[in-house]
Amino acid sequence: MTDAAIVAATSQINTCRATGHVPVVRTFFDDPTFTATHVVHDPATMTCAIVDSVMDYDPASGRTDHNMAQEIVDYVTAEKLKVEWLLETHVHADHLSAAPWLQERLGGKLGIGESIIRVQDIFGKMFNAGTRFARDGSQFDCLFGDGARFMLGSLPVIALHVPGHTPADMAYVIGDAAFIGDTLFMPDYGTARADFPGGDARMLYQSIRRLLSLPDETRVFLCHDYKAPGRDEYAWETTIGAERHDNIHVHDGVDEDTFVKMRTARDATLSLPNLIMPSVQVNMRAGHLPEPEDNGVSYIKIPVSGS
Ligand SMILES: [Fe+2]
After folding, report:
1. In angstroms, what is the span from residue 44 Cα to ligand 1's centroid?
2. How close is the Cα of 236 to the center of ligand 1, in Å?
């Protein structure tokens, strides 16, 4: 069966490369959460998108801060960029999004994948979020389906639904650059975990194979890096060709069953991310804190269970 979204993305990437009409990407790396936030702009219109921003959070005190996000505001202001989009690749479980804070200061529309509704349903139940928490994606300005097309200034964008890490993961192909969230990591580090609620290693493999069918020259920007053993520097940019040839988990030739076995065994050894409880409860609300209680204070819940 023809994969229309991949065919369209391939043609877009080839055209952008042939004409040299490609985006400029500046990345901000948040060491505490190992997250790469990308500010990607169209040099023709100086219009930009901010992909996967980070709000600082101290779990002991419950205090939020915006040092990372302020760096982005400073960069956008200095470069005279106009923010058109704030894009989330998924509901992150390891850091809190700064998208609403950035939107207030810089403008732009906040977008995520349409399957967010499923994630809101899962986590809404898990955290007993109550009826004030809408589970229809209405906290976001735009919900993208697979193959959705939109513009960043004069650059074309195609959204790809790449579930597996979570049910709602998206990749955004902007010009010749693919922002792939938590699917693949650097070739020497492998792939994202698939054991969160609604995650699925088999689905992740299929999503990754779709991404790997894009042109080899496609620039690939990751959401995280953890420095593979033997590598001293953080890295967040690679290519589809490098991933196809060298990715330690899923290079060409690794079949679905082998991947699923490896991924499932590895996930069983991983502990939960430090910030999973606040991250999920804030990010399922598009980066907003939970609705304040009758004393005006927002609380993060922790479900407790016995052994
Ligand atoms: Fe993630």
Report:
1. 32
2. 15
- CA 184 to centroid of ligand 1, rounded, Å: 11
User: Do 89 and 180 touch, CB atoms closer than 8 A?
Assistant: yes
- How far away, in angstroms, is 91 Cα from ligand 1 center? 7
67-78 exposure pattern, b = at least 16 Cβ within 10 A, e = fewer: ebbeebbeebee
Query: Does 307 score more than 80 pLDDT?
Result: no
Over the stretch 200-229, which tens digit does the pLDDT of each residue have?
999 999 999 999 999 999 999 999 999 999
The predicted structure's pLDDT at residue 84:
98
Cβ(276)–Cβ(93) below 8 Å: yes
Please list, in sequence order, all residues whose beta carbon lies within 8 angstroms of the beta carbon of residue 206, skipping any fewer than 6 positions away. Answer: 164, 256
Taking the centre of ligand 1 as the mean of its atom positions, its distance from the CA of residue 48, in whole angstroms, is: 23
CA of 197 to the centre of ligand 1 (A): 12
Average pLDDT rounded to a whole number, residues 11-31: 98
> Ligand 1 centre and the CA of 95: distance in Å?
8
Give per-residue pLDDT as tens, 186-197: 999 999 999 999
Angle 108-110-111 from CA coordinates, rounded to 5°: 130
Centre of ligand 1 from the C-alpha of residue 94, in Å: 7
pLDDT interval class at 258 (50, 70, 90): very high
